[in-house]
Amino acid sequence: MNQFLIALIGGVGTGALYAMLGTGLVVAFRGSGVINLGHGAVAGYAAYVFNELRTSGDLYLPWFDIIPEWGFLRTLRINNIPTRIHVFDFEMYIGKPPLIPTLLLSLAVSVLLGLMMHFLVFRPLRNAPILGKVIGSVGVLLYLDSVIAVNFGGQNRSSSGFWIFKPDMEPVKNFLGLGGTIPRANFSMLYAALVMGLFVFCLYRYTRFGIATRAADENEKGAALLGYSPQLIAGINWVLSSVLAGLAGIVFLHKTQPSLYATLVVGALGAALFGKLTSIPMTVLGGVIIGMMSGGGVQLANNSWWPDWLEIEGVRTFMPLLVIILVLYFQGDKLPIRGSISVGRQPHAPASNNVTIGAIFAVGFALILSNVFVSKWEAVLTTSILATLFMFSLTVIVGYLGQISLAQFSIAGFAAFMMIRFVGDGTLQRPDDYYVITGVNMPTILGFVCAIAAGTLLGLLIGLPALRIRGVQLAVVTMSSVLAIEELLTKSRSLMGEGAASIQPTPSNPSWFGQYIGGFNKETFRTDYWKYSLFLIIITALVGVAVVNLRRGNTGRRFLAIRANERAAAAAGINVKNAKMLGFGISSAIASIAGIMLAYKIPAVQAENFAIFSGLGLLAFVYLGGITTGYGAVVGGLLVAGGMMPEFLGVHFGDVERGMINAVGAVGLILNAIVTGGEGVALLQSDALGKGPLALLRRNPDDDDNSETDEDNATEGASV
Amino acid sequence: MRNSKLLKLLALIFAFSLIAAACGDDDDDGGSSSSSDNSSVSEESSEDDASSSEAAEEEESHSDDDGHDHSDEEAPAEEEAPAEEEAPAEEASGDFSDAVNGDGAEMLEALIDNPPGPANEDLDPVVITMSNIEGTPVGSFPEIREGAAAAAQAFNENYGGMNGRPIDFQPCVHGLDPAEATNCANDIADEAPTLHIQGIDFFNPLQWPTLVAAGVPVMQTVPIFVSDFNTPGLISTEGGCVSAFPTGMQYMAEVVEADPLIILYANSAPGIECYNDTEARPAQQLVDEGKLTSFVGVEDASGDPTDNEAVVQRIIEEAAKGDNPGVFFGLQASDCAELVAGMVAAGYDGVIVSSASCKDDSVLSQPFSHGMIISGEEEIYTPNEGIELSAYQTKYNPWRDANQDAYGPDAPKSQFMNVAHDVMVTAIITMMRFENEGGDVDDNAALIEYLAGQDNWNRAGRSKPMDCTTNSSEFVSVCKKDAGYYVWNGYDNGGWSYGPLGTEILDATDLLLRMAEGPNARPAAG
Amino acid sequence: MSNILETSGLTVTFGGLNACDKVDLAVPEGKFVGLIGPNGAGKTTFIDAITGYVPTSAGNAVFSGEDIGELKPHERAQRGLVRTFQSLELFEDLSVKDNLLVAGYDTRWYSFLLDMIYMPRKDKDVEEQIEWALEIMGLNDVADAMPSDLSHGRRKLVGVARALAASPKLILLDEPAAGLDTAESQILGGHLREFLDHDMSVFLIDHDMGLVLSVCDYIYVLDFGKIIAEGTPQEIRESDTVKKAYLGEEAGEIQAQAGERMTYNIQGDQGGQDD
After folding, report:
1. Which of A324, A371, A467, C67 is in the most buried spot, having the most CB atoms within 10 Å?
2. Are strands A504-505 and A604-605 parallel, antiparallel or unpaired?
3. Residue B219, phi then psi, degrees to nearest 5
């Protein structure tokens, strides 16, 4: 018992990080109405900068030099963007750069990041619908991750933090008479979090700026009418949020790798929601509680009575999710949705009238390519088609229904693992496999169906919170559940088999109706077996047609109605809850199919293949292609890593740092959110083809916004 | 209104210029390009564990380094008792000697001393491919590619390539995406290279079925997974878990006589595999042989601080169960620092031994690290007391440095870069030896056989030869099976010094062989 | 004649204040009932309460003989109690016709499967109702347009059409005339009474006295949440209570006369004083 309490109290260290990151999240939200999913990466970047300054004296700016080395640019001397500034000179091991200036410089970079986020991303998106803003923050996350990869590499960093946060201080012994020891650094971090919280709290309560922020948070229009510029308020809050993130990152530097901050944002999200995105004290409290629960929970798992099937890691990652769900369930409808002055319309979701022709054309084209391609290019083709198949699930849930679920890819992973478990027959699949999966020994097709059922059930479970919450909050819940799914379910050795936490071998002989349809060609040993490709094309075509037909029918109309206006949808007789569940179910079933098809293709899967960043990447690409149409999913599939487009271009990109390519993708994502509002390349293209390329430039997603006039007119004869 | 039009224009210009720039580049096969595909926490930890399982070399060569932490570096090099090097080799006229350093050492020295000049462009190139992960924050190792490229370039420009034939180095770089990894494998199999050097890749198990079935000879830089250790056709001159951990178990049993032995491992994919396969089994073998009283494995969430307190508690608990507890770490540096600090603060006073992952400055600069025993290789220990560099190293290291400088890498120099460089050099020299003995390097199967049959092999950069013919049936691919252990005294106390082993290194070859035959053999199904 | 809708003692409390205070109101089947009152009287709250968007603190509402207090908004709508919104709340992403289709069709559990294979259920009655709704609101020429392409007035007509498309038994119109220009109000006002011919009852809320007096069979007057008067349009015009509380003696007549000019069906009536 004592040990449990010690671990519980010791958890205030991580809790402090959640509290600090959560405070920064709330600041950003109050200023601009955006929940920044990339907040952790912002913290991480500052931490990296700080560490780098202390170890090598170089200051890395958050961008790359993308100007190519062309001759004429060189002569004009504009062929370089400064990316690295050598600030300090010192001998390794003999003195380090002074702490305070280093800290200030790092925070200056944070300020720069805050300004970049405000001016380049969130200000242009201020009128975008929720999805656009979520995508914007996803873009920030992906961009910063790429820059970190390029500038700092994958090396570990864990030193050069502040002395009071180092692990080697004299620990606190016998705290509260419980015996044992608790690292003093944890308490130092707690104090830091409290100080930060107090500072921000006073800022909001007692300064004019703080009051103006709170005013704009409640009623942007009103604040504007009083003479406060909402954009200026937003900008300052972004900078403040960024600085807070930087401080949190630097304080926590000893504890863990900065590259992990991006995932630790889940705990921060929990803290922010605990504070209802408004109250700083409650955010700090929430963060500390989540940290304590995680720490204590892990300690509980040390006991002998802990059931084996409940993975320790699952408990740890589940805690923030649990808190989030509880908060949202009990307080969900009271969470603030910050009203902006005007909100742009959702991306168009036109119904297609050429379904049969389109499908025949697409299938035919794919079959031709499949015939022509061999070896790697065949594998590239199937990668793209597989991605398209998965993206159809996003078209349904995000495009049609407007529910921002970030968990679909982890559902795909879950289904893949379940399939492996279902068909597992206890034999070694390949001579070099390390693990053997014993399972239910179902025939392939039955295993396929049962795995889809399992994935759908999980998807419905994930969708339950959607009944009470929406928008960004749903994105937060689904994002948090990704980790929980991974740790509690997909990686569970008792549920999925021995290889679950490690490398799970896929069945080497999946057969439908006696035909081997795996991706591995047993004669050439390439991943290019034609029957797999054919099978994949057929399934993808069927799913695609079904998804496009959904849109044409009443189900699609209902989904769009819900997306547009849930209140009015109910008034139109739509059972919104049932419809949402249906949407989640359909989407999860499609995702499950995609996961299983992936497992047929490659010799082994890992839970990490389906982690949050992969899922976000897929969302990003389908968003680029166009989230609301099947055609958009096709385009998106072409763009994914390992797919047609990058492989095609990849031949020329050998010299370019790969991280830069990711960063360019992230920038493209943000630009797309700003410029097309999610209609993506697909609809831009059809616009251009339909009305000529110049129409592209005349097009403007803000044009068709009449909601304001409705409000104004309604207030004419306003009655209570 | 105008803003979005402007943005649209900018976006178009941007996109076009990017494509234009792309077409302006020519390059050897850069492999697939990934976009925004990132992996989760675990990926990083798998990489870290792979490295942490290795006796990673942290110290740079003498140049004071760029300050990057390299706790996760791989490169279990042969532990060379420097004292041995003092004894002059009998035949060698220079510093390198085949008898002392392994076959190929003298050939290399001859080339270094008398560079024959550039390779002959008219001859058929020797194609050497590579697959490597780059560009994601949880795993990015351009230095591996650059190290190998530096070596290839040096040989092409100064040492006549491979017996005159130019070396065509074709790296396939990819991100954390299994589709991209299989693309690379397919590509490489199509290329049918003379040799393939595997970089650091978390998707090795996805690639082997294609590469091995296609008969491509593979030399590894850093083996990570069990399938890397035990697949015919693959040869590794680095030990990975295989050299770091069994020797660690041996050390704890024979030198420390730990009771109990507490093994800390990461919960990532390679971490779990390595624990089960290269720590738990040898430890059990030692228990069965009566050399170790008992052991227990403690899992730690790699890189995640949430569970550190609980893990420390557990360690203290387990330590109390015996008279002479010993803790063995195979974790990444941030966890190592936290846990060691926590343990020491909680009153743990037993022995602490670690693989080279804990050699990070964040650990070493702390007082709690004083007295830790850390796995080491031939390297320049700064500072140190009485640890000397071999004559081989004294000559080799600057040469390697010069090659890398001549190439001008973008990534900072690091142990990973050294490993890749050295593997490339070894590959070229070995191919030359094969040809000189009448072999046909383009005959894949013959080359594989030649590599696997090396019994006195000089891995460039190491003074001690390795013997591939003594690999156990469970680890047919790993030729390096030993490691040394040094004591860290703290920066102010003289730094590194010899530990209880003195200049001796621990060789786990015998333990591995015994393990393969007894009840602790790898389960048949695996 | 039975009442399609009947409320007794309906009370809605917001933080100590009764937005609706013991409202007893009945809409006889097939009749046109109006509810008027000054701004802030509680009219929209009343509609929100009977459609289920706002919880009632006391009293009950009976629709078609069924106590609907526990039903969710969509359940009430499915039973034929359909409303429009003052703030329109159109489905911007759907065309005008799609807006109506959504309201018109209900779904079975297997509908999505049928949709996927593109063999949707088609219901003749629903299609006819939708065509009538488009026709009567003059929207045939913009059936495929997006709501955002239309003028504000036509958007309001779409809102009404959408409610009509649901084949309601009782349609609740919340300020349908606000913001319409002359032509559009004429369309609306002229057709309102036609709704009764399509098997429905109508409940109209507006603060425009003239419109209400001209089309309704029976009128309730709400002030500060309480019904202060009820009766036929004639009775309401002459009611002193109403005049004092709401209209003011002169203004009421002016409005009434303006209403006369607006609608076609009114019988000329001697009004009060001149303006």
Report:
1. A324
2. antiparallel
3. -110, 135
Among C77, C111, C146, beta carbon nearest to A570: C77
C121 plus C69 within the same structural domain: no
Task: State how far residue A297 is from chain B, nearest Cα, in angstroms.
Answer: 9
Lowest mean pLDDT among A632-636, A647-651, B227-231, B336-340: A647-651
Q: Does domain B41-86+94-240+390-481 have CATH number 3.40.50.2300?
A: yes
Q: Please give the mean pLDDT across all residues of chain B.
A: 79
Residue C59 and residue C194 in one domain: yes
Percent of chain B with pLDDT over 70: 79
Residue C262 within a domain: yes
Closest chain A CA to residue C116? A546
Nearest to A448 by CA among A420, A427, A428, A429: A420
C-beta of residue C217 within 8 angstroms of C-beta of residue C232: yes
pLDDT confidence of C162, banded at 50, 70, 90? very high
Neighbours of chain C (3+ CB pairs under 8 A): A
Does the pLDDT at position B366 exceed 60? yes
Cross-chain residue pair A555–C53, CB shorter than 8 Å: no
Q: What average pLDDT does chain A have?
A: 81
Helix (H) or strand (E) holding B220: strand B218-220
Residue A298's nearest CA partner among A607, A489, A14 is A14
In a mutational test of the A interface, the residue from C48, C89, C122 whose CB has the highest number of chain A CBs within 10 Å is C89
Q: Do C181 and C157 fall into the same domain?
A: no
Q: Does A302 touch chain B (CB under 8 A)?
A: yes
Torsion from C-alpha of A110, A116, A118, A119, nearest 10 degrees: 150
Letter string b/e over residues A667-685, b meaning 16 or more CB atoms within 10 A of that residue's CB:
bbbbbbbbbbbbbbbbbbb
Task: Give the Cα separation of A24 and A29 in Å (integer).
Answer: 9
pLDDT value at residue B137 = 64
Residues A318-327 have pLDDT tens digits of: 777 888 778 7
C160/B35 Cα distance (integer angstroms): 49
SS3 A77: coil
Residue B38 with chain A: CB contacts under 8 Å: 142, 145, 613-614, 616-617, 662
Q: How many structural domains is chain A composed of?
A: 2
Chains within contact range of chain A (3+ C-beta pairs < 8 Å): B, C
Q: Give ranges for CATH 3.40.50.2300 in chain B.
A: 41-86+94-240+390-481, 243-387+484-517
Question: Which pLDDT score is estimated for B3?
Answer: 43
CA distances from B270 to A265, B52, B228, B277 (A): 25, 10, 11, 10
List the structure tokens of B211. 């590469």
